[in-house]
Protein: Transcriptional regulator ArsR family
Organism: Clostridium aceticum
Amino acid sequence: MDEFMGKLKALADETRFKVIQLLLTHDYCVGALAKQLNISEAAVSQHLQILRKAGVVKGEKRGYFTHYVVDREILKKVAEDIIKEASRMPQEKNKCQKHKVGKKQCCKML
């Protein structure tokens, strides 16, 4: 679950999600990503580092530059895990039952 959450956290940032969107259409080096996103190369490098640690992108050295690509299988696995979680059925015994405590409302699990 920690690995799954790490991937979700890496993808949750708007800029990193834009990086993923760009890399799904074409492989890019840091400089090209910086131009596409209109941010500094240092900022792109930081975002790529987080995405690499999460296993979502991979770098491939080509001459002087490293080009980045999305690991599509990892991205598909994250999507499958989200679908799996969304498909879970609630358990009857875990229904919430509202009751009053003083003047406040709270929930009590059965």
User: Anything to note?
Assistant: The mean pLDDT is 88. The CA atoms of residues 11 and 40 lie 19 Å apart. The longest strand covers residues 57-62.
